[in-house]
Design goal:
The structure holds two protein chains of two kinds.
Chain A lengths: L5 H18 L2 E6 L2 H6 L1 H14 L6 E6 L11 E4 L3 E3 L7 H10 L9 E2 L6 E2 L6 H4 L17 H6 L4 H8 L3 H11 L11 H10 L6 E6 L8 H8 L1 H15 L3 E6 L4 H16 L15 E6 L9 H8 L23 E5 H13 L1 H5 L9 E8 L5 E6 L4 H8 L9 E6 L5 E4 L9 H6 L8 E6 L4 H15 L5 H18 L7 H15 L3 H4 L3 H19 L26 H5 L5 E2 L7 E2 L9 H5 L7
Parallel strand pairs in A: 1-2, 7-8, 7-10, 8-9, 11-15
Antiparallel strand pairs in A: 1-3, 3-4, 5-6, 11-12, 13-14, 13-15, 16-17
Helix pairs in contact in A: 7-11, 7-14, 8-9, 8-11, 10-11, 10-12, 11-14, 18-19, 18-22, 19-20, 20-22
Chain B lengths: L15 E3 L9 E3 L6 H14 L6 H12 L4 H10 L4 H10 L11 E6 L2 H5 L2 H12 L12 E6 L11 E3 L2 E3 L7 H6 L3
Parallel strand pairs in B: 3-4
Antiparallel strand pairs in B: 1-2, 3-5, 5-6
Classes of the chains: A alpha/beta, B alpha+beta.
Bound molecules: flavin mononucleotide and FE2/S2 (inorganic) cluster (FES).
FE2/S2 (inorganic) cluster (FES) binds next to helix 5 of chain B.
Chain lengths: 615, 187
């Protein structure tokens, strides 16, 4: 295909917009993100296409497989565009009904619409559903609207305008200036201003420089970067080309998790399409600027998300961090000046260039500008991907957008920032989303994973969980992290197993200080955070484990007795039927008893019992 | 014909057959029960494509593991020689990244998500139910090589938590109660 110039790109865009207006097709947008694929959106798409074909509706309707729509809890999802009708939890068998009643009959299918959990009323329009109406999509402006495998869908929605402007109308210094004005801070966790980072790298003198994108997304419970790559890969590519221009780099890599096959596939398709149109490769848009981009797949090491380790990994070595300075802006990949930014950071860039830094900075708080994408999961009704302006409160994210805690359970804490982050209790839910404010309450903004926990979660067990993670992922290079996290884990396991002793809690506190001060990289320096934050807000629970050998949330198996309280037992037999190893002794209308010889402490009976009779 | 094996020592005593491929003449294919002729040809191609590119040993190892299923030591040595890298470098990389396995895998790989979202939603019970039923530990393989059990950190499908992936099928919302039924389907 012919390589485009800026004018031809604009012409192509105009033609696409005109063609879409002319054909007047209604677009049926079916979610094809990893989540909806798993719940069966591919058969839905096939059935829908077949049904449309059968009824001869092909000239009026187009079925589009989009990236993640965001409302993952309700998948598979379909949105009828531009009407805005939102269908949820679809199956292939529903498709004849949808086509007959809605597409032909003109009436939305009531039973497939979203049901508001508060008043049980159906809400037909996506824009009226609270999950969507409280959001502000900027990074996610294209999610669920375009086919991520079609560059024309992206171009139609102002795609590659940013690249054209940056390459043909701006000097590198002006790009950096706009980035600084925007106040955009790195979305990968640390929140370092992107403009400043680019500035440093642009000042380094070298014939070769690199632009890297961190798509390693190691924090468990985070899926923002995956969703962005699956829904709008070109936005990330655009950001990287602009960054390359700003620092004068000709080569870039996206370091992607190998666990994300769909994201990698779509990104590769996007790169190939861009190259075909002359938006990548040599002489982009006839500007004289060259840029090549390659995907590099990781191999499953959390620490490779750290910048120096990531570069080592691309060099084909063990991904171990090294001390800084020298900073990557001077000596990075293959010892050349390098910038590394997160997927979401790059996805913001094109819009900043098109609309100006001032526009971007008009939203947010004093020190945290723009919007932030969060992945909400755990014990919350509306699990999914959301984007809110900086400064929104945690409460509004969890309760307004997230819809609160299911099953009438009480909210206990929210975990932010992954293994380097912390747990925030109810009392601090009015904290705004802002790098500094969140740090004040003992967590970090992190990359955007928000995990909600209900009253059944044991906070000591959570601390143990995170320490297990960190201990496992410690690369072993520095002693404080390698040995310190192991000691941490031993003490926490002891406490959870009911062998806690006086002094253990104090040892945890002492260790925290030492590791924080002496570890080599961010992994170790932040390792104590989950322990410190749970100690800060839930010290009672630690005390109950150590001094009373009791787990208030009844999660720590070794501290449970596995006895049935005859007073509370109604003799219903639910536990008897549920037990996988026949450890429950029960006859009709009699009270049940647990045979401790046979019991494997799997908690099945415990979860089944409606009367809380099992201790 | 034998090749000097001094530099590694780990696979001493293995038989080596010369190979015919013109481009890989300098390499001797070690005999290995889990690697057949077509696999070796594939492996040679992989080495060929990656040899000229600095830093591509991770990609080469990944692709070879896809072919064979795991990375036996003689294979790693072979890759090292093919890519002109000392065996210590190849082994160092393979042992660092959790993607690589040096022991054979079962017919089905069960990957249980031990990420935060799945943990909060009770994956621990699912895991122990599988371990108890099939007598396998995390990272282990059943005696009949039916299942390999792996714990992974977040599959990015937290919306479906708790999540388990068997081979290429993602199963969302798995409960300790129902998990064995799901696994029964994989022979
Ligand atoms: C142990 C560790 C793991 C990290 N993992 C990630 C990650 O998965 N994704 C990411 O974008 N940044 C991660 N980071 C942060 C990166 O080191 C780096 O700061 C970031 O990618 C820079 O991009 P940004 O400025 O756009 O945020 C991690 C840092 C540490 C110390
Ligand atoms: S925590 Fe299991 S998929 Fe994310």
């Amino acid at each position: 295909m012919q390589k485009l110039t800026q004018r031809e790109l604009e012409k192509r865009r105009e033609a696409l917009v005109a063609a879409r207006a002319a054909d007047g097709k209604i677009r049926l947008l079916v979610c094809g993100g990893t989540g909806c694929h798993a719940t069966g959106s591919i058969p839905v798409i096939e059935a829908l296409k077949a049904e449309i074909e059968k009824n001869g509706l092909g000239d009026r309707y187009a079925v589009v497989e989009t990236g993640c729509n965001g409302f993952c809890a309700m998948g598979p999802i379909m949105v009828v565009h531009p009407e805005g009708i939102f269908y949820q939890k679809l199956t292939a068998e529903d498709m004849p009904t949808v086509v007959a009643e809605h597409l032909i009959g003109g009436k939305p299918v009531e039973k497939l619409l979203y049901k508001n959990p508060v008043d049980k009323k159906r809400i037909p329009l996506q824009s009226d559903i609270p999950f969507f109406s409280h959001q502000m999509p900027r990074v996610l402006r294209n999610k669920g609207l375009i086919d991520p495998e079609s560059i024309d869908d992206y171009i139609e929605r102002d795609g590659y305008k940013g690249v054209a402007k940056a390459l043909l109308e701006m000097r590198p210094a002006e790009i950096i200036e706009q980035m600084k004005i925007s106040g955009l801070r790195g979305r990968g966790g640390a929140g370092f201003p992107a403009g400043m980072k680019w500035d440093f790298a642009s000042r380094s003198v070298s014939d070769i420089k690199y632009v890297l994108c961190n798509a390693d997304e190691g924090d468990p419970g985070a899926f923002m970067d995956r969703s962005i790559l699956e829904a709008d890969p070109h936005a990330v590519i655009e950001g990287m080309i602009i960054a390359a221009r700003a620092i004068d780099a000709r080569k870039g890599y996206v370091y992607a998790r190998t666990e994300y096959p769909l994201a990698i596939r779509r990104l590769q398709i996007a790169i190939d399409q861009a190259r075909e149109l002359g938006l990548m490769g040599q002489n982009i848009l006839d500007s004289g600027f060259d840029f090549e981009l390659e995907i590099y797949q990781g191999a499953g090491a959390f620490v490779c998300g750290e910048e120096t380790a990531l570069m080592r990994s691309i060099e084909g070595r063990r991904g171990m961090p090294r001390p800084r300075p020298p900073f990557p802006a001077q000596k990075g990949l293959w010892e050349k000046p390098t910038i590394l930014n997160n997927v979401e950071t790059f996805a913001n860039v094109a819009q900043i260039i098109v609309n100006g830094g001032q526009w971007y900075a008009s939203v947010g708080t004093e020190k945290s500008k723009g919007t932030k994408v969060f992945a909400i999961s755990g014990d919350v009704n509306n699990i999914g991907l959301v984007e809110v302006p900086m400064g929104a409160s945690l409460r509004s994210i969890i309760f307004d957008v997230g819809g609160g805690v299911p099953d009438k359970k009480k909210f206990k804490a929210v975990q932010l920032g992954g293994p380097s982050g912390g747990c925030i209790p109810e009392a601090y839910l009015d904290t705004p989303v802002d790098y500094e404010e969140i740090a004040k309450v003992g967590a970090i903004m992190g990359s955007g994973g928000v995990i909600v926990m209900d009253e059944d979660t044991c906070m000591v067990d959570m601390a143990r969980f995170f320490m297990d993670f960190i201990q496992d992922e410690s690369c072993g290079k520095c002693t404080p992290c390698r040995e310190g996290t192991r000691r941490f884990l031993q003490i926490l396991e002891k406490i959870c197993d009911g062998r806690g002793e006086p002094g253990d809690i104090e040892s945890l506190e002492e260790l925290s200080v030492i590791i924080k001060d002496t570890a080599l990289c961010g992994l170790g320096q932040t390792a104590p955070n989950p322990v410190l934050s749970t100690l800060r807000y839930f010290r009672d629970e630690y005390n109950a484990h150590v001094y009373e050998k009791r787990c208030p949330a009844k999660r720590c198996v070794e501290l449970l007795k596995f006895e049935i309280d005859p007073e509370a037992c109604t003799g219903c037999g639910l536990c008897f039927r549920a037990c996988p190893v026949e450890a429950i002794v029960w006859k009709k209308k009699e009270k049940a008893r647990i045979d401790k010889e046979k019991c494997i402490k799997c908690l099945t009976c415990f979860n089944k019992c409606k009367f809380g009779a099992i201790n | 014909m034998r090749v000097c094996r001094k530099q590694t020592g780990v696979t001493g005593g293995l038989e080596f057959k010369p190979i015919g491929e013109a481009n890989m003449k300098h390499l001797m294919r070690p005999h290995h029960p889990d690697i057949d002729e077509t696999m070796w040809n594939r492996i040679d191609q992989i080495i060929e494509t990656h040899r000229p590119r600095p830093g591509s040993v991770i990609a080469a190892l990944r692709e070879c593991q896809e072919v064979v299923g795991y990375l036996p030591v003689p294979l790693m040595d072979y890759i090292g020689r093919g890519m002109n890298l000392p065996p210590s470098d190849v082994y160092g990389v393979a042992s660092f990244y959790s993607l690589f396995s040096m022991t054979p895998k079962g017919r089905h790989t069960v990957r249980v998500c031990m990420g935060t979202a799945c943990y909060v939603k009770g994956i621990k019970e699912v895991m122990s139910r599988i371990s108890n039923e099939y007598h396998i530990e995390e990272g282990g393989t059943t005696g009949d090589r039916r299942f390999s059990l792996e714990a992974v950190r977040c599959l990015g499908a937290c919306g479906l938590a708790p999540v388990m992936v068997v081979d290429h099928d993602t199963h969302g919302d798995v409960k300790a109660d129902g998990v064995l039924k799901v696994l029964e389907r994989y022979e």
